[in-house]
Amino acid sequence: MNSHASPQLMLVLLIDCTVKATALLAFAWIIASANRQRSAAFRHLVWSTGILGSLALPLLTLVLPSWHPASIGTASAPWSTAHTLPKDSLTQVHSMVVDATLSSSVLSEMKTLVVIIWAIGLLCVVSRLVGGFGRLAWLSAHAEPVLDDDWTRVVTEICRVLNIGRRVRVLQFDNSVAMPFTWGVLQPVVIVPGVACEWSEQRRRIVICHELAHIERGDWFLQVCAELVKAFYWFHPLAWIAVAQLRQESEQASDDCVLHSGIKAGEYASQLLAVVRTLKASKRNPSVALALARSSHLERRFAAMLNPTLNRQVLPRQARLLTATVTFLLLLPLAALHVPAQDRSGSFTGSICDPSGAHIPNATIIMTNQKANSIEMTTSDSDGNFEFKALATGEYQMEVVKRGFAEYRGPHIVLVAGREVSQVVTLNVGAVTEEVDVVAVGGAKTASEKAGRNPTRVRIGGDVQAPKTITKVQPIYPEAAKAAGTEGTVILHAIIGMNGTPLQLQVMNSEVDPQLAHAAVEAVSQWRYRPTLLNGEPIEVDTTITVNFKMLP
After folding, report:
1. Distance CA 100, CA 107 (A)
2. 469, 527 in Cβ contact below 8 A?
């Protein structure tokens, strides 16, 4: 496969996933917007499923078999000039050797450039994410565990209420003005500032409850997935909107969890405001960390927590698992779906020629896609040219069939979306076959010839005049073989020279009786043909002659 194939395939995957992710995230946006009266936990679940689905699309698209809906395939049929048939509709498919040359174009180079630009953007976002991981690891390594009994009691109590079975570590960092935040999945960590030891019991409970609500929902893992979605689809506005909305709904859902635990809204708002006044969200804090407060969210969060009419329902874990399972099952057919308009390669063109270089009209070109179990066909025009405007991407076996010419099968061809492929096919003149029966009856020497179909003149490309036997000497059944009742078939291969004489006679089946073989060679060597003509010039052509020696009872 050409070196440009990988960028081309990557671009096809990128376009395919972008289209599907657009539909997925737009649907999540519509559902979340239409459910403003529902709880923040519900909207957070909607955005989570959209983000996880968008992240899973590239992997599922690669591993799942392609699915082409029949209705979409039928609708796209007018765009193709070739006829698509099921593989079983042809009883026999012949083949030919193809000398293929892939064309390189400016369009192909532009597509490669697009993939490079996308990869640079991906690396920029991922490097920022990796830097955040490093910062979190460094902060955790330089923080001291909080061993105070009051902190341990509060953490244990809230973990029991929220059904958190994992061990949660509370670490204290020496930066006395850094905002509390949490991170981690299997071993989650809550990091608090140095001044946390001076907090009241109420403030400790509020901060720990908020951070443990993040841990119970797996918000840090979801935030990492959201950052990966932003990295893969960095050029897509919906990806950035989805990440921002997920973080926003995550914070409000954690606020609702605090209020749901029995803390009054006014008390929570005042405590949160006091924390914001005394602490700050450091610009050096990793973007993947979930901090207690961010200045861009505070106004909206205060308005929400002080609004008594808002729905603050906390979704049970079973509901979230059921939603994730249903979403995954619905995501499978979406990932396997390949819309024909996006799954079509560029034009596939070429020409069919004879050995003299003349173009061959009305040759049948057959493209077999083994994976899709389909065949697409077209014919060459009066100038010997053919064209498939939009074949589905995939691996094809090219075959060409034309009466009077040898039949060969070409190498496998990989077609990628948007790439133009051009091929020149040279057909060799077909070999001649004849069959003669030599029959012996009751010891008497008799012979008869089984006449085959006379070759006819076929106009293909230039003038091709098939060879015709002028002198045919009938083989004689050897007396010794006839007396012994020996029968057999002699298969001879020869080249009909430009003067019509059989050259290089060779017995192809060495197991035949030598007497029968000698008799066949003696007779056939005396045959004379009218030479085969290509565009008026004599050419050599292969021939296969079968001589059957039979005994009648």
Report:
1. 20
2. yes
Question: Computed over its alpha carbons, how large is the radius of gyration of the chain?
Answer: 39
d(Cα 64, Cα 329) in Å, to the nearest integer?
Answer: 13
pLDDT tens for residues 317-356? 777 778 778 877 777 777 767 655 445 555 788 888 888 7
Type and span of the H or E element at 425: strand 421-426
- Per the structure, the count of domains in the chain is 2
Structural domain containing residue 36? 1-67+105-343
pLDDT digits (tens, 9 = 90+) for 25-48: 999 999 989 988 888 888 999 999
Residue 165 falls inside a structural domain: yes
pTM for this prediction: 0.58
Do 319 and 445 lie in one domain? The reply is no
Between CA 348 and CA 391 the distance in angstroms is 7
* Pair (159, 257) in one structural domain: yes
Residues 6 or more apart whose CB falls under 8 angstroms from that of 527 comprise: 469, 471, 472, 473, 502
> What span, in angstroms and rounded, lies between the C-alpha atoms of 519 and 232?
77
Residue 446: give its domain's CATH number.
3.30.2420.10
Predicted confidence band of residue 438 (pLDDT cuts 50, 70, 90): confident
Asked if 4 and 150 sit in the same domain, the reply is yes
Is residue 552 packed enough to be buried (19+ CB in 10 Å), middle (13-18) or exposed (0-12)?
Answer: exposed
